[in-house]
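Researcher: For the record, we're logging two predictions in this thread. I'll number them. Prediction 1 follows.
Model: Prediction 1, sequence and structure:
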Amino acid sequence: MSRASTSHVERKNGTLRQWCKRLTPLTYAFSKKWDNLKAALALHFAHYNFCRIHGSLRITPAMAAGITDHVWTLAELIA
């Protein structure tokens, strides 16, 4: 927590709003039901952490944390 700052939180919020349009009320994908929003966010975070290679890390965040040893495919994520 000593390295955390508001800029980290704001960057994550910006990334989340760009990728998950359900959080933007002026789009067609806006979630009106809480269950749909929870499912969309869970899928977003799982994809972000296990399937997407981070630009500065050059690996996925899950690989950096030692949770997995490879980049997951979407088939692995959904299964």
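Researcher: Logged. Prediction 2.
Model: Prediction 2, sequence and structure:
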Amino acid sequence: MTDQPTPTPQPAYQPPQPSATSQAIKGLLGSLFDLSFKSFVTPKVIKFVFILQLIGLAIFTLAIIVTAFAAGAGAGILVLILSPLIYLIGVLVARIQLELIIVFFRIYETLNNRPT
């Protein structure tokens, strides 16, 4: 008697699935042109909006520093010292605003997905 391993069945052919990136793009474009407004764009682009706000805040903070130095060396040094605080407060305000938007969408989803 010989112990031979039993052959394992071969899986059936499965066509390649679309990547998560292509599904996200289709989902975004599909949501963007959804005239019935059944799917929302905001939760899909909120990260991108936050990055844009961070870049805008950085440019705004640099503009404040340049303007303060144009007004005088003392004002420029003071604003240069305070600029990280100005930037952090701006980031905090932007983050809170975007989180509030996401909370509204999550409330909507929770209310629509509860059992009747």
